[in-house]
Structure prediction request, 454 residues.
Amino acid sequence: MASKTQNPEKSSKNTNSEIFFYTDDESRETPGDSLCFMLRALKHSSQAFLAVNQNAFFKAVNQALCNTLGYSRQELRLLNEREDLKAIITAIIAEYESSKPGKKKNKLKIAGKNGEALVLKYVVNRSSDGRYYYIFVDDISEQEQAGIRLRESEERYRLIAENAFDLITLIDPRTHCYRYISPSHQRMLGYSPEELIGKNCFEHMHPDDRVRVSKKMEAGLRAGHGRAQYCSAKKDGSYIWLEAIGRIIWNQHGEEELLLVTRDISERKKAEEALKASEERYRYIVDSAADGITVIDCSSFRAKYINPALEKILGYSSKEYRHVNLFERIHPEDRDSIERLVREGKKSGYNSAEFRFRKKDGNYIWLDTNGKMLYRDGQAEWLCISRDISNRKQAEEELRYSEERFRMITDSSFLMIDISCPQTKKYLYVNSSNPKILGFTEEEMLGRNIFDWI
Prediction:
């Protein structure tokens, strides 16, 4: 700050080395001086201000300029001695004088005190008395950097869009017309961007899909995002399946645009159709099978699905059976063995068992079950095929009882009773009287020819 209160231009000292600042001490102002008037007006302004004389020397600055450049007031005095800075100010004055009457706006790149590159926008005007040039400065460094980053970002996205395999489009939400088409359209659909820009996006869509996709688009515009699958015509007249994912964005003019990223899902659709057909065939087989088929969750051991045959065998509906604790329905005498087989099956992936299971009416039946462990979405499941073997078990029990009764009768007889094979003539059975009478053991006689004893 100058130490003199007289008019700076009339000071006996070298006024080119002095810089004047407006302060709260009004005794240091020079009444009537246009420079002091300007400084008073800009006392608390955030607008950075610089006044120079016709020799390009700093005559006044405000605190906002100090903040912008990072220099203190004392440090700014020394800048008057820098020839490079004087050359810049001289060029600004010359540019102003050579321009049309009025204010001249321009940009300047300069280094701040810490070496950081600053981009300053400035406006030059001349004082009414012609003694000073007033330079009003705005720091637009952040805006400039943002602009550079925006241009770099746009360039990256342009490169991505032009080299992407997916289709990238911008659509006017009001007219549904294309504003931008990526080059990948020509590779996938056969249309060049020039052939599609300005046309309605529904023009090449399959007629059966237009109403449905239009409704999805309107819902997506309200939500800000959406997804749709549809058939689109290629230039050669054939159709392909596409899936589009859309999102509302705003362009540099603040206008809404619909950004779509679309990919060819024809192969996926073929696979889905093949899977659907396969599932329908297998469901028909499962639903028509005489054996009971069920899918059991390994963690909860509850059924996730049973076929109609198992519903008929057990008396449960599919809905009822899903809430049944299967272990509780197994006969108490069979539970330990089933638990052991389940543990073994988790390791081997397969197992089979015969056990008694309680039906809905409370009666037990015998089931012969083969189980295989499968994985769906990372979850382990048992696929079990069961057959009601109650009749077979009953027949086996009756046969066992009959054989025991026959053996009891024959072993009690004093007569020799034996059974031999008609073809081989070998003993299949001998009662206890044979060894006693003949002197041979039962093991020695079984398998021998009956004529060996003649």
